[in-house]
Amino acid sequence: MKNLNKFIILTGPSGVGKGTVIKELLDKYKNIWLSISATTRAPRNGEKEGENYYFLSEKRFKEMIEKNLFLEWAQFAGNYYGTPLSSVNAKIEDGYIVLLEIEVEGAKQVKCRYPEAISIFLLPPSHEELERRIRGRGTEKEESINKRLIRSSYEIEKSKEFDFSVVNHNVDETTKKIIKIINP
Fold this sequence. Notes:
The chain is an alpha/beta fold. It is built from seven helices and nine strands. The protein has helices at 18-28, 58-66, 85-93, 104-113, 127-137, 142-158, 171-182; strands at residues 7-11, 32-34, 38-39, 54-55, 70-76, 79-84, 97-101, 118-123, 164-167. It has a five-stranded parallel β-sheet with strand order 2-7-1-8-9, with helices on both faces. The longest helix is centred in the C-terminal third of the chain and has 17 residues, at 142-158.
């Protein structure tokens, strides 16, 4: 893969605002492409092939693993998830900045394989603010919230392993900081 300085890894704990920041980046900068993951799980209502995910059979996914066709992959909750190398390569060759939103372990896999890629960890202003954001969604039960908060402590500790850390106080400011990192 060429132009790895145009290959961006973005991660952070649940509730930090990754989705909001990514939407802002994609709306403002047409030369950024958000990679699409492959999965073996069934499509959810409204999800579209090639837009939300590439939906693959378990057999096909395993064949791709054997052929080393993923940037990273993992098995979670009985399904496989991964980032197909072909689509990322194609977008980089077309001149796009490729943005990969993945969790900490996947980010580590990609960074080991492509150390030139830029890794950015999105941090919350505080643990209390992170909890407020997660609870504010109103979409999860207490048990799930607690699991996410416990996991966030582990993930935030891992932020030291990333090239850059950006505190998400405000979406506009955070977006500007990320753009400065991508295009110094």
